[in-house]
Write a structure and sequence with these properties.
Elements lengths: L18 E4 L2 H8 L4 H20 L3 E6 L12 E7 L9 H6 L3 H8 L1 E5 L8 H11 L10 E7 L2
Parallel strand pairs: 1-5, 3-4
Antiparallel strand pairs: 2-3, 2-5
């Protein structure tokens, strides 16, 4: 029996090899942040988000994924999965800190489709496996894709 694959979107060729790639935000920006006004704007927004997170002092492991990491000329947003080291923010900047991890705020202000996971720990294997399966393959569910891992405030 043949399996029917419904392709809902086009997949674009990869720029980096498929798989989980440990890298830096400047390297991501210099590779994927050029080539169109949309890419440049998204990259500026990603940098602004990272600056905002740095100002909170919270250490974050983040996976950048989706069409931003392909050769798609004009990606609509950046998919980002984050594992913050803590979630309780106190002090005068608590509202700003919390806004950097608020899905609606981050999408509206930065064009980032952010997914906040539980606190970062050595037990993230199951969550990472889920996201590797979901974002690690193209729309045909067969073609491997790239996921770039960065750390903000290591």
């Amino acid at each position: 029996m043949a399996c029917l694959h419904v392709k809902t979107k086009d997949d674009y060729p990869l720029i980096w090899a498929p798989g989980l790639v440990s890298t830096t935000l400047p390297e991501v920006a210099s590779t994927f942040g050029v080539g169109s006004p949309e890419r440049e704007a998204l990259t500026r927004a990603l940098n602004w988000w990272a600056i905002g997170v740095r100002e909170t002092g919270v250490s974050v492991k983040a996976w950048i994924c989706g069409s931003y990491l392909t050769s798609k000329p004009s990606p609509r947003d950046i998919d980002l999965i984050v594992w913050p080291a803590k979630r309780v923010y106190i002090g005068t900047d608590a509202e700003r800190a919390n806004s950097m991890f608020d899905r609606k705020h981050v999408y509206m202000n930065y064009g980032i489709d952010i997914h906040i996971e539980g606190l970062s720990s050595d037990e993230d294997f199951e969550k990472e496996a889920y996201y590797l399966g979901f974002y690690g393959f193209g729309w045909d569910r067969r073609t491997p894709r790239t996921i770039a891992e960065i750390v903000v405030n290591p």
